[in-house]
Automatic annotation (TrEMBL):
Residue ranges crossing the lipid bilayer per the database entry: none
Name of the protein described by the UniProt record: 5-oxoprolinase
GO molecular function, one term: 5-oxoprolinase (ATP-hydrolyzing) activity
GO biological process: glutathione metabolic process
Keywords: Coiled coil
Presence of keyword Coiled coil: yes
InterPro entries linked: Hydantoinase_B, Oxoprolinase-like
Any Pfam family the entry gives: Hydantoinase_B
Coiled-coil stretches: 177-204
Superkingdom to which the source organism belongs: Archaea
Lineage, broadest ranks: Archaea, Methanobacteriati, Methanobacteriota, Stenosarchaea group, Halobacteria
Length: 538
């Protein structure tokens, strides 16, 4: 049961709880509007999108439970828009990772929310568009060396000004993308999602009164802050260090080091990435906002995931990375893989550090990759993009989960029926990888295998990880299996972009999760209980 205490804002606990749920429902309704209105399978089927509500100061008030890497980085987008002195009725579009974005395929819309010609907040939607131009279909090139190769780059730009859509900007956004018809429909869905937020907020003003709702903004932030600092205070003070590696950046195959020192000091956590490798030639650089989003995700997991996610639970956490490092790169660094793969490794390394403070709260490593697969035609006739699930690491009290998205992504898979209807692709195999989870008192989850036959000449891009460094087990548990990529049965590197002919098969075998605890201590009684409950046990 959620604790509801009085807040400094003077709102009673019952009103606070009602408002908190209503504000969160606005974010959720935004998400549903976007998903139902989108045209591309990447958004309507996989739900690779996120929505949130912010106050006039740019503080996150509520978010839908969508994509962690989107949501934790959203405040940077709102901050970039506020620097441009937005006016009531304005809507900004952006994707530039150096001015509020994450990577170029993630297109963000920030709409002003106003009452009596005064801005009272912002509605924000972020969606991964299946193509935004660049050197390869799908805008996820494995070998990009600079951001210019990755697609159309949009700094915060007014798409709607004073309530009127700017057709010149709209045309510009669509001018250099493949399948502009699909992109146009997805942009309309984002606009509709933000408009839904305006309608719902206006209804709250009518129901509760404007001043009460605005006081509620402060109250929900204070509430989350109080709960978060209490959780952090329960962690043992100290500095905890960890190091992990990425497997090449698409230009070289050399290991790349991410180092972290997590310092717990009373009611605050400082996360310092000094010692992390410098900015890379390839595209695994991650904007600082992406690194922050990974840190916030881990802190929420290690404390209390039920704390309402908003600005209040992020306030006690500070994140630093040296300028010019791979976690705080300078233009024109390529970054498309940093958002999807480096964010996963930041998650892993911060979990590893905090495991020394709270070992029972941290699972063994999961697959640690999004297994990005992009297949598209250079004529723009189709672009398929997928992140493929894998093994979740075993917990201290139960087995890991099989074939799920792990860490910074939270998407569904694209159903086979949808893939074969929408694209010139045929799914030959989609199954769990037997014995891919690490053994332990509790076993790691199983990875997946997906084999796709390409029925038209196309370009295939793979951005993957954990192909040579296995997801680690803990407390005596064994490592999960590494992943593998194959084209026509031959193994290819973790990062690869290649043109293929019709009839080519592409197979992605995803990693399993690490095990937890000594395999010899696996309890047969617990196994039998799992079997009776219909759960996987061996």
């Amino acid at each position: 049961m959620t604790d509801t205490t009085d807040t400094d804002a003077g709102i009673d606990p019952v009103t606070l709880e009602v408002l908190r749920n209503q504000l969160e429902s606005i974010a959720e309704e935004m998400g549903q509007t976007l998903i139902r209105g989108a045209y591309s399978p990447n958004i309507k089927e996989r739900r690779d999108c996120s929505t949130a509500l912010f106050d006039a100061e740019g503080r996150m008030i509520a978010q839908a439970e969508h994509i962690p890497v989107h949501l934790g980085a959203m405040p940077a987008a709102v901050e970039a828009v506020r620097d441009l002195e937005p006016q009531p009725g304005d809507v900004f579009v952006l994707n530039d990772p150096f001015t509020g974005g994450t990577h170029l395929p993630d297109v963000t819309m920030v709409s002003t929310l106003s009452a009596d010609d005064e801005i009272v907040g912002y509605a924000v939607s972020r969606a991964h568009h299946a193509d935004v131009g660049g050197m390869t279909p799908g805008s996820m090139p494995a070998g990009a060396r600079e951001i210019y190769q990755e697609g159309l780059r949009l700094p915060p730009t007014r798409l709607v000004e004073g309530g009127d859509r700017r057709e010149d900007v709209h045309s510009l956004v669509l001018a250099n993308v493949r399948n502009s018809r699909e992109r146009r429909a997805d942009l309309r869905a984002q606009l509709a999602a933000n408009e839904r937020a305006a309608e719902r907020l206006e209804a709250l003003f009518v129901e509760h009164g404007r001043e009460t709702v605005l006081e509620g903004f402060d109250a929900v932030i204070d509430y989350s802050h109080e709960r978060m600092v209490d959780e952090i205070a329960d962690l043992p003070d100290g500095s905890y260090e960890a190091t992990d590696h990425l497997e090449g950046d698409g230009v070289t195959n050399d290991d790349i080091e991410i180092s972290v020192t997590v310092t717990v000091d009373g009611e605050e956590i400082d996360v310092d990435f000094s010692g992390t490798d410098d900015q890379l030639a390839g595209n695994l650089n991650a904007p600082l906002a992406v690194a922050k989003s990974a840190v916030y995700f881990v802190v929420r997991c290690v404390t209390d995931p039920e704390i309402p996610p908003n600005h209040g639970c992020y306030e006690p956490v500070s994140v630093d990375a040296p300028e010019g490092s791979m976690l705080n790169p300078e233009p024109p660094a390529a970054v498309v893989g940093g958002n999807v793969e480096t964010s996963q490794r930041v998650t892993d390394v911060v979990f590893t550090a905090l495991a020394k403070a709270a070992p029972d709260r941290v699972p063994a490593q999961g697959q640690g990759t999004m297994n990005n697969l992009t297949i598209g035609a250079r004529d723009g006739s189709f672009t398929y993009y997928e992140t493929i699930g894998g093994g979740f690491g075993a917990r201290a009290d139960r087995d890991g989960m099989d074939g799920v998205q792990v860490g910074m992504t939270n998407t569904l898979n694209t159903p086979v029926e949808s893939i074969e209807t929408e694209y010139p692709l045929r799914i030959e195999r989609y199954a769990l990888r037997e014995d891919s989870g690490g053994d332990g008192q509790f076993r790691g989850g199983l990875g997946l295998e997906r084999t796709v036959t390409v029925e038209k000449d196309a370009t295939v891009s793979l951005l993957t990880e954990r192909r040579r460094h296995a997801p680690a087990g803990v407390a005596g548990g064994e490592d999960g299996a590494t992943g593998e990529n194959l084209i026509d049965g031959e193994s290819v590197p973790a990062k690869r972009t290649v043109d293929v002919e019709a009839g080519t098969t592409v197979t992605v075998r995803t990693p399993g999760g690490g095990g937890h605890g000594d395999p010899d201590e696996r309890d047969e009684a617990a196994l039998e209980a799992d079997r009776r409950a219909g759960k996987r046990s061996d």
